[in-house]
Amino acid sequence: MQMEQNNSRPANGLISRGETPLNLEMPFSSLDQFITPNEQFYVRCHFPIPEIDDAAWRLKIEGAVESPAEWSLADLRQMANHTIPATMECAGNGRSFLEPKVKGVEWDLGAVGNAEWTGVWLRDVLARAGAKGDAIEVILEGADKGPIKEPPRPPGEIRYARSVPMAKARGDVLLAFAMNGEPLTPAHGFPLRAVVPGWFGMASVKWLERVIVTSVPFNGYYQSIDYTYWEQRNGLPTLVPLAEMRVKAQIARPHIGEIVAADAEYRIHGAAWGGESDVAKVEVSDDDGASWHPAALLSEPVKNAWRFWEFRWNTPAHSGDYTLIARATDSVGTTQPARRVAEYGSYMINHLLPIRVQVR
Amino acid sequence: MQMEQNNSRPANGLISRGETPLNLEMPFSSLDQFITPNEQFYVRCHFPIPEIDDAAWRLKIEGAVESPAEWSLADLRQMANHTIPATMECAGNGRSFLEPKVKGVEWDLGAVGNAEWTGVWLRDVLARAGAKGDAIEVILEGADKGPIKEPPRPPGEIRYARSVPMAKARGDVLLAFAMNGEPLTPAHGFPLRAVVPGWFGMASVKWLERVIVTSVPFNGYYQSIDYTYWEQRNGLPTLVPLAEMRVKAQIARPHIGEIVAADAEYRIHGAAWGGESDVAKVEVSDDDGASWHPAALLSEPVKNAWRFWEFRWNTPAHSGDYTLIARATDSVGTTQPARRVAEYGSYMINHLLPIRVQVR
Q1: Triad A131, A134, A136: Cα angle to 5°
Q2: How far apart are CA B202 and CA B224, in angstroms?
Q3: How many CA atoms lie within 13 A of B270 on its CB side?
Q4: How many CA atoms lie within 13 A of B190 on its CB side?
Q5: Which residues of B touch A155 (CB under 8 A)?
Q6: Closest to B234 (Cβ–Cβ): which among A63, A221, A224?
Q7: pLDDT digit string (tens) for chain A, length 360 residues
Q8: Cα–Cα 20 to 30 A to B60, which of A57, A215, B176, B180?
């Protein structure tokens, strides 16, 4: 287990998990704002950040459409604009807690954030181009590109691309040019990125340049080899692309190894989120899961956004190590799994994570 | 490049490419019979050969069917039986010629054979169980199983399984209990195997125990991670399951490095095959591809079977190294590619293979 304290921190307070490609996470123990400031929002890159001349940049739409088209950033700003909140979590968030170790960026708890995004609905863009009736998916392609190192891999350089099924594409997917009221920064996908609410971050393609409507399933690298998991179907493991985030509560404070005063009240707090469903309940255990106590949810649910929660803990009178666990249940009754699901591989880390603290 | 002469040969004349799992190929230079004798037919295994009690064995059919059912071997023998020829080639045949080296069994040219198979049509079995109208694929599952070592991999042990689309399943796929008039041997899939004519061998699942009709695409390990290749679609590499064999001519004699008498007639000969299309033409070059000469096709085409060919070569009067190449064209006009296609990865090795010989 890595502890946040051991990592170098850039000036903006984010923790570096790699420079090329750039990967940054927030120190989750500092969580205190429902809207994550842009400079504290985690950054996940697969390739070097592309330099894009926004004057020359165009969004292209092609494939199974009546009228292939392209629009400038000014064109998009002149369409109907919408602002929505969306919590975004990297599918590998929490990977540093996995035993045995698996491949991938060693995220602690901070590859998650909640922002307000402004842009145009993907469905409006699809309607303008006239998506055909047999279309089943929409591929979102970024400008970021590079070679894949590990087999199985396609040869040469590839661009980052991901697809969403037509039902989701015709739903609440936003093509965003602003984040919390500011233009996107290069690290966050300038000039345009997708925001796929309720889904892991890999679907929210940055540096978006091409929308391809397709009538056959897309099996690109990040849809088939990477960002996938195994699901048992008919008694056989079948590879499935990651999609919705999984219900999860994370403890911000105390952090791992924190020293907590004995025989006092301590505010255990954190955030919980759950894919396309709202969070309905958060519980806390201070005895390694033997008993559970309801936490207070600190606001009404906001669609597609995390929910803050707290639990006023009467700390033990006796010094010692204690294990805290939080667990969330969503509005359709799904609770976090107690143990790691092997089929999830290196992703979807939403089993219960014990946080050891010292009471003194 | 490996030369056949350097490999140990079991008593039956096959070349071992591994004992556990068992992998054997024929020495292709010994090619002389249109029907490959069972004891010379290549063997490809992914796991240990399962021991099956044929009295207790049943073929199950389930999934998107009106009436799930199971049949004994005696039941299948009592249904309408059919005998068809089919050439079967391992998708990795010729891998030892790839530079740089890639992962996988180091086959020379002999992971190919042609047999007559006897059994029942898969379509008859589907009709008996009543495959539903929304069914799109048929999964064929074997009894062979084991763990996968390299990521990305499903956890635990998996069974070998592969699917065919419904159109092929309703076509000429045979469930075979006999090979060249003899019951299948354990190495060839006793008591029952699929034979998918025109497709690479990975589709012809051995030790067949379960047929699962499905209305969603199957993405099992051997359908998504292994036995796949990259195809450019919409300018993006997309993972595609291997299916049809690719048109190909192989030279049996002379073999690599063979010493050929100068200023004489030498019978260059071999076999050619091509997926679901017939072979229409074979050509030979003795000057490294600068000029091509038509080879004689030695029989009428037999659907789904290879075609033998020969070229009477007037060898040069001067001693030296010469490069022979054969190339095939199928009945729809597809010719072997001159150079390796990078997207094919470690499979579908059907580019032109130069055979260096010494004329003395």
Answers
A1: 80
A2: 13
A3: 30
A4: 15
A5: 230, 237, 342-343
A6: A63
A7: 333 443 444 447 899 999 999 999 999 999 999 999 999 999 999 999 999 999 999 999 999 999 999 999 999 999 999 999 999 999 999 999 999 999 999 999 999 999 999 999 999 999 999 999 999 999 999 999 999 998 899 999 999 999 999 999 999 999 999 999 999 999 999 999 999 999 999 999 999 999 999 999 999 999 999 999 999 999 999 999 999 999 999 999 999 999 999 999 999 999 999 999 999 999 999 999 999 999 999 989 999 999 999 999 999 999 999 999 999 999 999 999 999 999 999 999 999 999 999 999
A8: B180
The answer to whether the Cβ–Cβ distance between B238 and A225 falls below 8 Å is: no
CATH of A4-241, one of 2.40.50.140, 3.90.420.10, 3.30.300.90, 3.40.50.2300: 3.90.420.10
CA distance A352 to A335: 10
A234 → closest Cβ in B139, B158, B343: B139
CA distance A346 to A220: 19
Nearest to A237 among B62, B154, B240 (CB): B154
Secondary structure (H, E, C), A216-234:
CCCCEHHHHCCCEEEEEEC
- B141 Cα to chain A: minimum distance (Å): 9
SS3 (DSSP) at A175: strand
Q: CATH 2.60.40.650 region(s) of chain B?
A: 248-359
DSSP-based helix, strand, coil % in chain B, nearest 5: 10, 40, 50
Cβ of A219 within 8 Å of Cβ of B234? The answer is: no
What residue type is assigned to position B129 of the chain? A
Q: Which residues of B touch A (CB under 8 A)?
A: 62-63, 102-103, 139, 141, 151-152, 154-156, 158-159, 161, 212, 214, 216-221, 224-226, 228, 230, 233-234, 236-240, 342-343, 345
User: Cα distance from A300 to chain B (closest Cα, Å)?
Assistant: 38
Q: How far apart are the CA of B213 and the nearest CA of chain A, in angstroms?
A: 10
Its ipTM equals 0.91
Q: How far apart are CA A90 and CA A109, in angstroms?
A: 10
- For the whole model, what pTM was predicted? 0.93
**Nearest CB partner across the interface for A238, out of B103, B219, B237:** B219
Nearest CA in chain B to A160: B236
Q: List the single residue in B154, B159, B343 with the smallest CB-CB distance to A154.
A: B343
**Structure confidence by residue, pLDDT tens digits, B241-264:** 999 999 999 999 999 999 999 999
State how far the alpha carbon of A262 is from the alpha carbons of A154, A285, B278, in Å.
57, 17, 83
Buried-exposed string B74-96: b where 16+ CB fall within 10 A, e elsewhere: eebeeeeeeebbbbbbbbbbbbb
Contact call for B158 and A240, based on CB within 8 A: no
CATH architecture under which domain A248-359 falls = Sandwich (2.60)
Task: Name the residue among B300, B255, B243 with its Cα closest to residue B110.
Answer: B255
Chain A closest CA to B159's CA: distance in Å?
Answer: 8
Across the interface, do A103 and B216 touch by the CB < 8 Å criterion?
A: no
Pick from B241, B204, B238, B243: which is nearest to B224 by CA? B241
CB contact under 8 A, A155 and B230: yes
Region(s) of chain B under CATH 3.90.420.10: 4-241
